């Protein structure tokens, strides 16, 4: 960096951190690498032809679609989302309760801009989606973290942590949670904890950001109610996304929440990117409106269920199971694997030499921890690569265990 640029950087730029996972990507993207690292959908399941058929909208409505759009979002898509999300939301959200965003990560960005002053606090799961928490950190957030078990955030610990924070003069603005098929932990919050979480937020006067990109990717069991549907006081902002149920390249997501906060976030968005690409919104709308979203979703879920099963079969076939802990995820994209006698960093270094990549656990724990855990994405690699990659991981684990005993 030049001296001139250095001397001009803002205070915020002085403290920003890159995402360790994004930074890892050039390491991982080598030819021949079997990657369980990024949380990427399988491109084989992208509905390319059906998406392409919707492109006629550019001929039919090109003069509108190619123009600047309103910041609030493309009205036909908002109207579709109001109806499509109603069963999950417990009502048809009104147009002023919906904001179309550039991916659901923008919901987190705009909510942080709208609520946070530098130095304020956010509650989140002890390990969380770094893409969002790093952005929050870069905007000046501090974090209170609550650990998780297989039923998600241990909400029972929240009241004490909140009251302690209050007594120390810390201003907690919102609770950021991923209740369904958590990234990176794979766990899902139980109904009792959902109810308790909403009640606590209402009583304490803090907001909740319900981040739900994986909610529709459920392999078994019943859907649990959204936090949004359990709230009657307007404390929940719901973030949805087309990234995992259609394609992340669309960069179309949405926020559903109390209209005053949606309005404030909309004003921030005006200055961030004017509006989400109208071309992308119109193409997504055409795809959804033609019935493709509902027709394809079961196929996508089925496809990923088979991939999850292939990964677990390979775990059972190749890993030293007495040395490995994991919980089968009921949906989403990830296994969270713990190896009490193996450092994930060591496994990672050796696995890379065999052209196998995953994400180490430690970067998910900014305050330390996670050294013996790692995240495995099961959606991206082909079944053959999954088998070969996990065979290599199993061999590497045995090598390391053998050396530590010998
Ligand atoms: C928990 C979580 N939230 C948000 C996102 C970002 O989604 P989008 O592509 O809609 O911005 C991801 C992507 O991996 C995620 O795992």
Structural commentary:
By secondary structure, this protein is an alpha/beta fold. The protein contains 16 helices and 14 strands. It has two domains: 3-47 and 296-405, Aspartate Aminotransferase, domain 1, CATH 3.90.1150.10; 48-293, 3-Layer(aba) Sandwich (Aspartate Aminotransferase, domain 2). The protein has helices at 3-8, 11-15, 20-28, 48-53, 57-60, 62-65, 75-89, 105-115, 130-138, 158-167, 191-204, 259-273, 278-289, 292-318, 344-353, 383-405; strands spanning 34-35, 98-101, 121-125, 142-146, 148-149, 152-153, 172-177, 207-211, 236-241, 253-256, 334-338, 356-357, 359-360, 373-377. The radius of gyration is 22 Å and the shape is globular. The structure holds pyridoxal-5'-phosphate. The site of pyridoxal-5'-phosphate has 15 residues, from helix 9.
Number of helices: 16
Order of helices and strands: HHHEHHHHEHEHEEEHEHEEEHHHEHEEEH
CATH class of the largest domain: Alpha Beta
Q: List segments where confidence is low: pLDDT < 50 over at least 5 consecutive residues.
A: none
Task: Write the CATH homologous superfamily of the largest domain.
Answer: Type I PLP-dependent aspartate aminotransferase-like (Major domain)
Q: What hetero molecules are in the model?
A: pyridoxal-5'-phosphate
Total discrete domains: 2
Subunit structure: Homodimer.
Family: Belongs to the class-I pyridoxal-phosphate-dependent aminotransferase family.
InterPro entries: Aminotransferase_I/II_large, Class-I_PLP-dep_aminotransf, PyrdxlP-dep_Trfase, PyrdxlP-dep_Trfase_major, PyrdxlP-dep_Trfase_small
Keywords: Aminotransferase, Pyridoxal phosphate, Transferase
């Amino acid at each position: 960096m030049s001296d001139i640029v250095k001397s001009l950087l803002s205070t915020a730029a002085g403290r920003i951190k890159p995402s360790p996972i994004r930074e890892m990507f050039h390491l991982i993207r080598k030819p021949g690498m079997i990657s369980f690292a990024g949380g990427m959908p399988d491109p084989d399941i992208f509905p390319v032809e059906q998406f392409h058929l919707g492109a006629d909208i550019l001929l039919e409505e090109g003069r509108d679609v190619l123009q600047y759009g309103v910041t609030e979002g493309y009205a036909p898509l908002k109207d579709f989302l109001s109806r499509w999300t109603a069963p999950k939301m417990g009502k048809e959200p009104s147009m002023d309760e919906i904001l179309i965003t550039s991916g659901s990560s923008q919901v987190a960005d705009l909510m942080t801009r709208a609520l946070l002053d530098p130095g304020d606090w956010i509650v989140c799961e002890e390990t969380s989606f770094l893409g969002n928490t790093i952005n929050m950190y870069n905007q000046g957030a501090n974090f209170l973290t609550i650990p998780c078990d297989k039923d998600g955030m241990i909400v029972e610990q929240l009241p004490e942590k909140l009251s302690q924070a209050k007594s120390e003069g810390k201003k907690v603005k919102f609770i950021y949670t991923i209740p369904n098929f958590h990234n990176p932990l794979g766990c899902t919050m139980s109904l009792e904890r959902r109810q308790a979480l909403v009640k606590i937020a209402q009583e304490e006067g803090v907001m909740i950001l319900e981040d739900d990109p994986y909610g529709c990717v459920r392999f078994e069991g019943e859907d649990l109610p959204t936090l949004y549907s359990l709230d009657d006081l307007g404390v929940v902002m719901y973030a949805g996304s087309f990234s995992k149920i259609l394609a992340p390249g669309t960069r179309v997501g949405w926020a559903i929440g109390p209209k005053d906060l949606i309005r404030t976030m909309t004003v921030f968005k005006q200055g961030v990117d004017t509006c989400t690409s109208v071309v992308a919104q119109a193409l997504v709308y055409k795809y959804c409106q033609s019935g493709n979203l509902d027709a394809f979703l079961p196929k996508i879920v089925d496809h990923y269920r088979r991939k999850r099963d292939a990964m677990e079969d390979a775990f059972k076939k190749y890993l030293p199971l007495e040395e490995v802990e994991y919980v089968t995820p009921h949906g989403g994209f990830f296994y969270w694997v713990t190896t009490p006698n193996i450092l994930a960093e060591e496994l990672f270094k050796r696995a890379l030499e065999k052209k196998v990549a995953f994400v180490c656990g430690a970067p998910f724990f900014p305050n330390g921890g996670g050294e013996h855990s790692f995240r495995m994405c099961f959606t991206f690699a082909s079944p053959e690569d999954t088998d070969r990659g996990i065979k290599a991981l199993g061999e590497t684990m045995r090598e390391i265990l053998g050396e530590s005993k010998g």
